[in-house]
């Protein structure tokens, strides 16, 4: 099923993105596609596998690799400046235990917007596959969580996770001219963020002191998120958005390593997608 007027946006949330992985696997199994997709953080990683047609790969990456010290470790933080080794994720894993169909990904004509936060101006920056020399650099930037990762340079400028500036990227879809959006959120309806913790604020001010605009965005990110959710609620009531999200809050953390918890959240994503499949098909028709 395909509607040229309706795009797809996928929230990240670190390892909570495994919920989106479950939803996307069901969409792929049902032959549902979109003219344009937009992802933030883990949402962009899951979308890359969705576009390559690698069913189940996002589940493997999140559920299995989070326990692999080659990908996530304090050692990486000490020697690489980042907890996550994205070189291992993007350039080694695809050639070994979890193949990635680069040809299918490159040939896919779907417009793919990868959402990041600029350290220079603190604003949202969307990189589009086919318009940036190395989309995997943009994917690494989009998934580089503040305080846990060093900045990733894309086209010569520093970026981090898209979450602080645009956690749920439905706005770029509307800006690109799509009339409606399907939104995969990784938090339940009604969830709102509290303020940044004092320790996190102090760390951010120390780590990114040369980027005052980014610090401002990071410190205000809960407010930015909450305003975005208010807008999403309004658009959903107007019939412009179809939201797929967890029905209850999850105890899965942003960098969860408990495989059982991750598998349960993946299963919940599949369950929600299957439960609402008929309604989704009606929205897309």
TrEMBL record:
KW ATP-binding (keyword) present: no
UniProt motif DGA/G: location: 161-163
GO MF terms, alphabetically ordered: hydrolase activity
Active site per UniProt: 41 (nucleophile), 161 (proton acceptor)
Positions of short motif GXSXG: 39-43
Domain PNPLA: 8-174
Metal-binding is among the record's keywords: no
Residues that span the membrane, as ranges: none
Listed PROSITE patterns: PNPLA
Keywords: Hydrolase, Lipid degradation, Lipid metabolism
Entry protein name: Patatin family protein
Organism: Candidatus Alloenteromonas pullistercoris
């Amino acid at each position: 099923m395909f509607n040229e007027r309706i795009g797809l946006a996928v929230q990240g949330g670190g390892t909570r993105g495994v919920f989106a992985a479950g939803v996307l696997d069901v969409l792929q199994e049902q032959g549902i596609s979109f003219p344009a997709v937009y992802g933030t953080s883990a949402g962009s990683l899951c979308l890359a596998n969705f576009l390559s047609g690698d069913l189940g790969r996002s589940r493997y990456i999140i559920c299995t690799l989070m326990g692999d010290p080659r990908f996530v470790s304090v050692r990486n933080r000490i020697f690489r400046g980042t907890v996550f080794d994205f070189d291992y994720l993007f350039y080694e894993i695809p050639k070994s235990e979890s193949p990635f169909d680069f040809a299918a990904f490159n040939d896919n004509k779907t417009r793919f917007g990868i959402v990041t936060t600029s350290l220079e101006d603190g604003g949202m920056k969307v990189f589009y596959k086919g318009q940036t020399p190395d989309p995997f650099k943009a994917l690494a930037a989009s998934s580089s969580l503040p305080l846990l990762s060093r900045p990733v340079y894309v086209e010569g400028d520093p970026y981090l996770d898209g979450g602080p500036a645009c956690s749920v990227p439905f706005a770029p879809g509307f800006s690109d001219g799509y009339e409606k959006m399907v939104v995969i959120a990784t938090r339940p309806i009604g969830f709102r963020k509290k303020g940044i913790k004092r320790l996190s604020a102090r760390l951010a001010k120390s780590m990114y002191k040369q980027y005052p605009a980014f610090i401002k965005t990071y410190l205000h990110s809960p407010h930015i998120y909450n305003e975005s959710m208010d807008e999403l609620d309004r658009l959903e009531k107007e019939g412009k958005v179809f939201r797929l999200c967890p029905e209850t809050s999850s105890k899965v953390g942003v960098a969860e390593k408990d495989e059982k918890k991750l598998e349960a959240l993946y299963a919940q994503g599949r369950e929600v997608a299957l439960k609402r499949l008929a309604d989704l098909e009606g929205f897309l028709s």
